[in-house]
Design goal:
twelve-stranded mixed beta sheet; three-stranded antiparallel beta sheet; alpha/beta; Rossmann fold; 19 strands
Length: 477
């Protein structure tokens, strides 16, 4: 009876198709719904050249990504690629995605989520956050954890290669791509843009694998803009300008107004230290700032809280369970800044001794491996920023309570390294770079209550500023 019914239905369908014309196309299926994702994008071993030295990246690097789609029309919305200087823990935890971490560590809905107008793609660069490396047939050696492997040039290339693969594998997403980074991430973004523009002479780096991947990449779409939160942009000139800014009478007066007793020094940064204030926000104690950061990192390894932040249950993330993760390694080890991950281990399985699922930092981090990187000791990155800004628009933030990378140090730093054919100036609203062929203006948004972590303190204002800035760009509409 069932077979007879099926044959009758099939015959009816065939007659209907015939009546409508033999060449009529069957109705198309509805587009697949775009949903949150998390997983790993594998980068195969490759050979590169840094400062003329051949370097072998022998491990397969498993780069962790987390995609949060726009609330409406994700197919046409902008795609914002986000990260901090190292992992993406701060920008994910505070004020960008659908959920955010409160001061007490609880995860709550975020009314200012950037998903109201954009897709968000968070990355953990090589071995930071949940990312890890895998060697096929041997244990890691010192060479696998060297500063060449964790150089700024490889770091940027890794993230770009992972982004290119994500874009290629998500053909339904057609919107322009923007790069959002905080602090050291300004360095990463400049090298990413340099590679995309194929301005290879600016970087002491050769990467045949990256060049081949860029040959078929949608460069113009990937050069839509840069969103720079308290960015490091000008190399050693930036470091010198920051030291000079600490001697500014205006900054000293601002720090003095936030403490009860007279400053024992005429240096604003030293004054903040003497009162145990955080350099990331001098109105907070170092303990208050560290507590908020620790709570943010703890939420990302507490299964229930993490599921809200990532939008995906951790057991469903391919490549994350101990059966996969135990085959890999991280060069860094947990320390006092690393939250307890026993609940994650109970959920996903234990790891070998000395290994951790998540480390917010990486061996690239100054103080945890990197000692004298180019981005602090040379001006190569500043030259790259000035060159990139000719073609790629930027939004720059001024967290007025930041002593780590104060925005007021940027213009003096750039003036130091700019060629004589250029001018660099600033108003309250814009940074103006005067090139021989004309001026480029970059928008500056000010956050008087925020320090280094803009989205931690002023998420609502930042979201409004970013939405307005994107709306000014025809390709983002």
């Amino acid at each position: 009876m069932g077979d007879q019914k099926y044959r009758s239905l099939a015959l009816g369908a065939a007659l209907l198709l015939s009546a409508c014309g033999a060449n009529s196309a069957p109705p198309s299926s509805p587009p697949e719904r775009v949903t949150a994702e998390a997983g790993f994008l594998d980068l195969a071993p490759r050979n590169v050249v840094i400062h003329g030295r051949p370097v072998t990246l022998a491990a397969t690097s498993k780069i962790f990504y987390n995609f949060r789609p726009a609330d409406t029309d994700p197919e046409t919305r902008p795609l914002i690629v986000l990260f901090n200087g190292f992992a993406s823990d701060v920008v994910r935890a505070f004020g960008t995605g659908p959920n955010t971490v409160e001061p007490d560590g609880t995860v709550v809905p975020n009314p200012d989520s950037l998903t109201r107008f954009a897709n968000l793609l968070y990355f953990d660069p090589r071995q930071s956050g949940f990312s890890y490396d895998v060697l096929a047939d041997r244990a890691p050696t010192a060479d696998d954890c060297s500063q060449d492997v964790f150089s700024e040039y490889v770091d940027a290339a890794d993230v770009l290669l992972a982004t290119l693969r994500f874009v290629r594998e998500h053909e339904s997403l057609h919107g322009p791509v923007y790069w959002l980074g905080e602090s050291y991430a300004g360095v990463r973004i400049q090298w990413i843009l340099t590679y995309l523009r194929q301005a290879w002479s600016l970087a002491p780096y050769e990467d045949p694998t990256l060049r081949a991947a860029l040959a078929s990449a949608p460069q113009s779409r990937l050069l839509s803009g840069q969103i720079l939160l308290q960015p490091w942009l000008a190399g050693i000139a930036h470091a010198s300008a920051i030291q000079a800014t600490c001697s500014s009478p205006a900054l000293l007066a601002a720090v003095q107004a936030s403490v009860a007793s007279p400053c024992p020094t005429d240096n604003a940064c030293a004054c903040a230290r003497s009162f145990a204030r955080s350099p990331y926000n001098y109105t907070l104690s170092a303990t208050e700032q560290d507590t908020r950061m620790f709570a943010a990192d703890a939420a990302q390894v507490a299964p229930e809280a993490a599921e809200a932040l990532y939008g995906v249950p951790f057991p469903q993330i391919s490549g994350l369970s101990s059966s996969d993760r135990a085959r890999g390694f991280k060069c860094s080890v947990a320390d006092a800044e690393t939250p307890d991950q026993s609940a994650l281990s109970a959920l996903l399985g234990p790891l070998p001794s000395g290994q951790s699922y998540n480390l917010a930092y990486s061996p690239l981090t100054t103080g945890k491996g990197s000692t004298d990187p180019d981005w602090r000791s040379q001006n190569l990155i500043g030259n790259a920023f000035l060159d990139n800004a000719r073609e790629v628009d930027a939004l720059i933030t001024d967290g007025e309570r930041d002593l780590v990378v104060p925005e007021t140090a940027l213009v003096p730093a750039l003036q130091t390294i700019a060629p004589s054919s250029m001018t660099v100036s600033e108003t309250s609203a814009e940074l103006t770079l005067g090139y021989p062929d004309g001026a480029r203006t970059l928008r500056i948004f000010h956050y008087p209550s925020a320090g280094h972590m803009i989205t931690m303190i002023e998420p609502q204002t930042f979201a409004a500023n970013l939405r307005d800035w994107l709306a000014e760009r025809p390709q983002a509409r």
